[in-house]
Amino acid sequence: MGVKRVVILGSTGSIGMNALKVIARFPDKFKVVGLTAYNNVDLLARQIKSFAPVFAAASPQNVAILKKRFGRSKTQICNVEEDVESLVCRADIDCVVIAMRGSAALKPFLSAVRAGKTIATANKEALVIAGDILISEAKRHHARIIPIDSEQSAIFQCLEGRGRSELKKVLLTASGGPLLNVPSSRFDRLSVRQVLAHPRWKMGQKITVDSATLMNKGFEVIEAQALFQLQMNQIEIVVHPEAIIHSMAEYTDGSVMAQLSITDMRLPIQYALTYPQRLESGLGPVNFFEIGKLTFQRPDLGKFPSLALAIHVGRRGGTLPSVLNAADEVVVDAFLNGRIRFSDIYRIVEKVVRRHKVAVRPTLEKILAADQWAREEAAGLIFR
Predict the structure, then answer these.
(1) Domain 4-147 belongs to what topology?
(2) CATH topology of domain 317-384
(3) Which residues of the chain, if any, have pLDDT below 70?
(4) What is the pLDDT of residues 118-131, one digit of tens each?
(5) Tell me, what's the pLDDT at 161?
(6) Which of 57, 63, 297, 374 could link 327 by a cystine bridge, Cβ 3.0 to 4.6 Å?
(7) Helices (DSSP H) in 27-170: which residue ranges?
């Protein structure tokens, strides 16, 4: 493997920081060409000092701060809102790590695909709302999309080298989130702190709330459907609280391939960056003797209706996944800011989804228009 030249979109978030830890472990194999962030200018500044990228991009209000600090350095300071779509297309970039969250990643994701890059993505929203477009464009421009999310990475690894005609279904695992053992009768009284107490993963606030509602698992179903070109009936969700098996693939002969590892995001990140090679990670293997047992159960769709809603949306397709994602972003933000109760998340999102008139096989413009409509509709319902 030669030196891979990498840009990280969202370098100050959890995924971005872990990606830089992986890169720092292999300085002879990776060169950081670019870093982008939005508001965490102090951490971005430390990353610039450590990795000396060719360019770094931040929000407009932080560009001046960074230019003052790095005006005499070789790092070019850019505006993340205006420049990122062109920056990911640079000839000196091999791999684009999409570590930023939300639908804002869609346009730079699409630009990187059309530039024929390898995209290592932890962003599920872009694939949820415009997966068909991204996969179609990737085929056309010979781009490679490698998932970083632990579950999608596991499926990617289990399917590697196998013909799709041999595949029966994938088994997408879920830890069950922070509320697996909390009765639904308590949901109205849950605080933000209680909802954010995930037992297995350290993630951002929005994704942790989605894990609590199991909406995140619903998004992963839609993502897997697009990423691996599956039918909805080929995806089965298995609740696996130990989070050691990250997902599985069942083949037509009854054999099941599983990917197991400790719960550390550096492992799927490293595999995406070093693919198709595997390098020593320094993280250690699964200790089966300490684990003792692995347990599995079906998801409770009555207790977690957001998951059932997302599956319904995935079956309908069209502009509906864009609506689901946008409404969820608005409503989860309202919960995190104390404006609604936890149980209101599903209630409001379901109303927005039900009111939407679905456009089948939509253009990117229609997808983005549906996104904007859903945000306005959800915001209106919050204040009623």
Answers:
(1) Rossmann fold (3.40.50)
(2) Rna Polymerase Sigma Factor; Chain: A (1.10.1740)
(3) 1, 200-201, 384
(4) 999 999 999 999 99
(5) 82
(6) 374
(7) 41-51, 60-70, 80-87, 106-114, 124-141, 150-159
